[in-house]
Task: structure prediction
Amino acid sequence: MKIADGNAVEIDYKLHLGDGKIVDESTADEPLTYIHGEGHIVPGLEAALEGMSPGEEKKVVVPPEEAYGDRDPDQVQEVERSVFPADMKLEAGMQLMAHGPEGESLPVSIREVKEDKVVVDLNHPLAGQTLHFDVKVRTVRQATEEEKTHGHVHGPDGHGHDHE
Ligand code: ZN
Result:
């Protein structure tokens, strides 16, 4: 079966930013799983995977506009120190997870810590980067109706996670 819209796909991947240094990768126990055609992975990678079969490997280079977009200088903002817990130690270079309006996780980088202000960067850490993926397709199958409703792939025993 080839990768097409509505398929549950399992891939192994490595990601580097052009210098060969791996910044992210799946593990043997935890391949990346997603439902194809739903925009759950970066658009440039999703497009490149279309039509691939299990066992196939590919190198995919994805420019920022088909990945996490360009860096937006307006996303670098100064906020009050008090928005962070008082006992939290803040340092330039730290990355935190904040929660967006719909409960989604938003990575936040600390750029600078001033006396009572903190400069945060809300750009995705990979914004402005060209992504270099090494991918290998493991399995491709039709997603179940339940998986399509949930928007994610379930493990071999059904749910590998909790739903409320
Ligand atoms: Zn589910």
Q: What stands out?
A: The CA atoms of residues 43 and 66 lie 5 Å apart. DSSP finds two helices and nine strands in the chain. The longest strand covers residues 131-142.
